[in-house]
């Protein structure tokens, strides 16, 4: 049995062509390095929390992929991500790594900025500087907390008045208390007025949020407590109006309230905590305060806070400011 | 009907517990076991003749020609359209979700890791496997295999070994061509379909970003496993044909169906093993 | 056999071998094809095994070359167990199949050259000599480059015999060598079998139901019927058989008045 020489040549050509294609594919996909990836060098990045970061996620510098997360681990009281960086990519010692969460699919990557020219390069195995970024979940949690605080404060205030609303003589006591606390009340009112002004002028986050009409269609879930606070305030307002009406109609006696020292104390404490909250807001302390001052949070919290402004609207229109105003107007 | 396929001299005496158990197995189960066993034994007998491969060089080249060269056109046509359809389908489905820009990686990975090797193997079973089964079954029925044995020429050496060596040599070539043609098919469809409209440059950039040679290598290994399986199964079924010429057709059908089933079953396990 | 080497078509032919069959039985499932068959064939002898179709002649032949293994009993070739696959490596046995069993994908020349090539018996030139000599013996020189599909039945049988000769067999087995052939071609094949034995002293076992062939060339004859040997002896003993079954087999009467045709009458 002898082979046709042409057949042999065809098989040879075909085989060599196939091998050449495999080689070309190998060169193209793996850059000619023996298979699997460039080993690169490693850097360690420590964070309080790696959030959704996992091994295999990208490491990008100025948006360009320069490596990936080799592994994630717990090291004492912090979480560490070991980053594999391509050998030909050098990183300045003053560059900062942050964890970025990509919106759509929910995957994260480590973003490293360029650093400055003057700084030396980081050695292999070195540790890179990191910065924590506010993440959506903690902002939401803190907002919820704040809402509960407001609710507690307003609820306490409401109860102290409500519980004795049918007792005669309440007017005298209220009058005394309001007189004693006039300074506090006016400071509170002033603070809140200041906030509203800022908001109206479009300053700070809330202002920007309010000016952005697209924000109206977003989530409300995280701020339910805030709304509850507003509702509470509204019911307080209704009570207060009823109270004023009763006082004006001359019903009830003053004596009972004068001798009800406990109710008075409660009312005082409630007003104090309300003032505390509003002062904190004005001075930019606490989460809501930060929100008012920190423009950088806008990007991240935009989606959440789109609905928050509705809650703020409620506060603005029928919130504590107006409630106090109604009481004050009715009395004085 | 009891299972009498394995009427061997050893079973002449009192049947062992295993043999009695085998007799009571449902016939399909018995046939699966019999097929698996005889295929493995054929592989073992064939491997014993590997040192004589250089003497089979002429037959090896002939089989390479049949398995590789003449199978290439149909593999090319099929994988071109498989790649095109992959791009079309994913482009259509991804239009609203916004993963259009990942079409390159999607087509690339699917072709290299799955459809390239599987399609090459399916065509091998249909085109080469059927030919092997028909040829060997006919040689068996017309006593050519018996003649070889009386001439002290083991059929494994002359009939199975060259085919096995040829499929091992040619499967990587067929598979890489299937991969590349499929990729180009996807690229062309991505460019000229109005709702996709992705330039080949960005298609291939995306493909390269998400692919590694290990993905292609993975597919090549799978293809080798499939190729060896198809050739062995078809040789075994062909050589085990009994009866008259009518059985040749039955053997071809059985060989192709068994090959196709095994390709898909093995695909699962090989994929899992290579992960 | 001092003349064996000088007259061999091919150099290095080994002496012919004897064959024994002892109480050979073969069952396929529940069907018993052979039931305790025993005989012996001397080296250089022509033994003709006769019998009606389905009597197990071909199955017996397959046992001798190891294509079947016995259910009971034993067959030996040159004293070696025939069912042992290694026997083939030590004793050169050739079987001329009933339908020829030529390799359809190979030319006549390649059919003959396959054995020496696979066993590396010399270079291409030596193999060519060897093949051409075998073709000459059977007057097939002109068919060397034809393919089996282009050959007539008689040619196929001659090619099959030539292919067997290339092996320089020590034992040559023929399965129905004259079936389906016209009387002239049958006579030619019969002559070839006798000549080959005469010139090369090869042990020959011929399975056939051709009475003329058997009586013409057989040293001894065995008649197999229903899986049993009903006659074993020199061909001369068949001229006046004592067993009515043997007589019936050799000289069947054509009887149109046989009772089995009664029901055909209207």
Number of distinct beta strands of chain B: 0
Biggest β-sheet description of chain A: 7 strands, mixed, barrel
User: What structural class results from the helix and strand content of chain B?
Assistant: mainly alpha
Return the structural class of chain A: alpha/beta
Provide the succession of SSEs of chain A: HEEEEEEEHHHHHHHHHH
What separation lies between the terminal Cα atoms of chain A? Answer: 121 Å
SSE ordering of chain B = HHHHHHHHHH
Number of strands of chain A: 7
Give a written overview of the molecule.
The complex is a heterotrimer of chains A (332), B (275) and C (266). Chain A has 332 residues and is an alpha/beta fold. Chain A folds into two domains: 41-130; 136-331, no CATH class. Chain A has helices at 5-30, 136-162, 170-180, 182-200, 204-211, 224-248, 255-259, 261-283, 286-293, 297-318, 320-331; strands at residues 41-47, 58-61, 64-75, 78-85, 96-101, 108-112, 127-130. In chain A, strands 1-4-3-2-6-5-7 form a seven-stranded mixed barrel. The model of chain A is unreliable at 213-217, 252-259 and 314-332 (pLDDT under 50). Chain B is mostly helical and 275 residues long. Helices cover 79% and strands 0% of the residues of chain B. Chain B is built from ten helices and no strands. Chain C is α/β, with parallel strands linked by helices. Chain C has a single domain, classed as Rossmann fold (3-Layer(aba) Sandwich). The longest helix of chain C has 18 residues, at 183-200. Chain C is globular, with a radius of gyration of 19 Å. Chains in contact: A-B, A-C, B-C. Chains A and B meet through helix 1 of A and helix 3, helix 7 and helix 9 of B.
Give me the secondary-structure topology:
The complex is a heterotrimer of chains A (332), B (275) and C (266).
Chain A: H1 5-30, E1 41-47, E2 58-61, E3 64-75, E4 78-85, E5 96-101, E6 108-112, E7 127-130, H2 136-162, H3 170-180, H4 182-200, H5 204-211, H6 224-248, H7 255-259, H8 261-283, H9 286-293, H10 297-318, H11 320-331
Parallel strand pairs in A: 1-7, 2-6, 5-7
Antiparallel strand pairs in A: 1-4, 2-3, 3-4, 5-6
Helix pairs in contact in A: 2-6, 2-8, 4-8, 5-10, 6-10, 6-11, 8-9, 10-11
Chain B: H1 17-24, H2 27-47, H3 57-69, H4 72-94, H5 103-141, H6 144-150, H7 155-192, H8 200-210, H9 213-239, H10 246-274
Helix pairs in contact in B: 2-7, 2-9, 3-7, 4-5, 4-7, 5-7, 5-8, 5-9, 5-10, 7-9, 9-10
Chain C: H1 4-7, E1 19-28, E2 31-41, E3 46-50, H2 57-64, E4 72-77, E5 80-81, H3 87-90, E6 93-96, H4 108-118, H5 124-137, H6 153-166, E7 171-175, H7 183-200, E8 203-207, H8 211-217, E9 220-225, E10 228-234, H9 244-250
Parallel strand pairs in C: 3-8, 3-9, 6-7, 7-8
Antiparallel strand pairs in C: 1-2, 1-4, 4-5, 9-10
Helix pairs in contact in C: 4-5, 4-6, 5-6
């Amino acid at each position: 049995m002898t082979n046709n020489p042409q057949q042999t040549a065809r098989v040879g050509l075909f085989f060599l062509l196939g091998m050449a294609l495999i080689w070309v594919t190998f060169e193209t996909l793996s850059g000619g390095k023996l298979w699997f990836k460039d080993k690169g060098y490693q850097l360690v990045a420590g964070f309080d929390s790696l959030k959704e970061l996992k091994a295999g996620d990208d490491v990008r510098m100025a948006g360009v992929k320069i490596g990936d997360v080799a592994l994630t681990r717990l090291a004492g009281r912090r979480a560490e991500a070991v980053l594999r960086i391509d050998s030909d990519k050098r990183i300045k010692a003053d560059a900062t790594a942050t964890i970025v969460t990509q919106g759509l699919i929910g995957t994260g990557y480590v973003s490293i900025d360029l650093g400055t020219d003057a700084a030396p390069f980081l050695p292999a195995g070195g540790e890179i500087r990191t910065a924590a970024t506010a993440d959506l979940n903690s902002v939401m949690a803190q907002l919820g907390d704040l809402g509960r605080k407001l609710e507690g404060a307003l609820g306490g205030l409401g109860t102290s008045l409500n519980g004795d609303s049918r007792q005669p003589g309440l007017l005298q006591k209220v009058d005394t208390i309001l007189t004693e606390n006039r300074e506090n009340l006016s400071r509170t009112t002033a603070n809140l007025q200041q906030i509203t002004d800022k908001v109206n002028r479009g300053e700070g986050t809330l202002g920007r949020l309010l000016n952005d009409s697209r924000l109206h269609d977003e989530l409300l879930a995280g701020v339910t407590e805030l709304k509850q606070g507003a509702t509470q305030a509204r019911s307080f307002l209704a009570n207060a109006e009823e109270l004023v009406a009763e006082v004006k109609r001359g019903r009830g006696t003053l004596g009972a309230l004068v001798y009800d020292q406990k109710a008075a104390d409660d009312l005082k404490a409630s007003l104090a905590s309300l003032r505390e909250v509003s002062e904190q807001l004005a001075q930019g302390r606490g989460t809501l305060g930060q929100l008012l001052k920190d423009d950088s949070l806008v990007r991240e919290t935009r989606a959440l806070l789109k609905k928050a402004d509705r809650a703020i609207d409620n506060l603005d229109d029928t919130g504590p400011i107006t409630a106090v105003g109604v009481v004050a107007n009715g009395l004085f | 009907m009891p299972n009498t396929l394995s009427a061997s001299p050893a079973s002449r005496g009192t049947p062992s517990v295993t043999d009695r158990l085998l007799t009571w197995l449902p016939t399909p189960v018995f046939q699966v076991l019999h097929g698996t066993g005889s295929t493995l034994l054929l592989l073992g007998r064939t491997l014993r003749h590997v040192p004589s491969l250089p003497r089979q060089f002429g037959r090896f080249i002939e089989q390479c020609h049949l398995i590789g060269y003449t199978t290439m056109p149909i593999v090319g046509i099929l994988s071109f359209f498989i790649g095109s359809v992959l791009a079309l389908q994913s482009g259509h489905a991804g239009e609203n979700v916004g993963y259009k820009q990942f079409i390159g990686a999607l087509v690339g990975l699917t072709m290299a890791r799955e459809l390239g090797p599987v399609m090459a193997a399916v065509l091998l079973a249909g085109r080469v496997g059927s030919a092997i089964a028909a040829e060997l079954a006919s040689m068996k029925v017309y006593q050519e295999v018996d003649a070889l044995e009386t001439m002290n020429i083991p059929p494994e050496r002359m009939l199975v070994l060259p085919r096995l060596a040829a499929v091992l040599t040619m499967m990587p070539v067929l598979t890489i061509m299937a991969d590349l043609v499929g990729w180009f098919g996807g690229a062309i469809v991505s460019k000229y379909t109005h709702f996709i409209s992705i330039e080949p440059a960005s298609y291939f950039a995306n493909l390269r970003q998400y692919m590694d040679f290990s993905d292609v290598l993975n597919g090549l290994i799978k293809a080798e496993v499939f190729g060896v399986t198809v050739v062995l199964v078809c040789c075994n079924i062909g050589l085990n044909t009994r009866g008259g010429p009518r059985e040749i057709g039955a053997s071809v059908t059985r060989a192709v169906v068994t090959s196709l089933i095994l390709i898909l079953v093995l695909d699962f396990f090989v994929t899992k093993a290579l992960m | 056999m001092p003349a064996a080497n000088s007259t061999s078509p091919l150099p290095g032919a080994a002496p012919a071998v004897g064959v024994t069959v002892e109480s050979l039985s073969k069952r396929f499932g529940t069907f018993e094809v052979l039931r305790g068959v025993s005989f012996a064939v001397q080296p250089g002898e022509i033994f003709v095994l006769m019998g009606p179709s389905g009597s197990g002649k071909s199955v017996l032949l397959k046992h001798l070359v190891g294509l079947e293994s016995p259910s009971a009993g034993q067959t030996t070739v040159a004293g070696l167990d025939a069912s042992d696959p290694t026997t083939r490596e030590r004793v050169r046995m050739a079987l001329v199949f009933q339908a020829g069993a030529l390799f359809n994908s190979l030319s006549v020349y390649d059919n003959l050259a396959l054995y020496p090539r696979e066993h590396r018996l010399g270079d291409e030139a030596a193999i060519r000599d060897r093949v051409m000599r075998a073709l000459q013996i059977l007057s097939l020189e002109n068919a060397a480059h034809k393919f089996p599909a282009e050959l007539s039945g008689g040619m196929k049988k001659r090619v099959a015999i030539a292919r067997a000769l290339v092996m320089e067999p020590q034992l040559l087995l023929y399965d129905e060598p004259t079936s389906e052939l016209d009387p002239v071609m049958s006579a030619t094949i019969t002559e070839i079998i006798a000549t080959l034995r005469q010139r090369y002293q090869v042990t020959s076992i011929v399975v056939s139901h051709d009475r003329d062939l058997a009586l013409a060339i057989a040293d001894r004859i065995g008649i197999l019927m229903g899986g049993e040997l009903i006659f074993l002896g020199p061909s001369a003993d068949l001229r006046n058989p004592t067993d009515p079954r043997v007589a019936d087999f050799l000289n069947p009467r054509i009887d149109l008045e046989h009772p089995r045709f009664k029901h055909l009458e209207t």
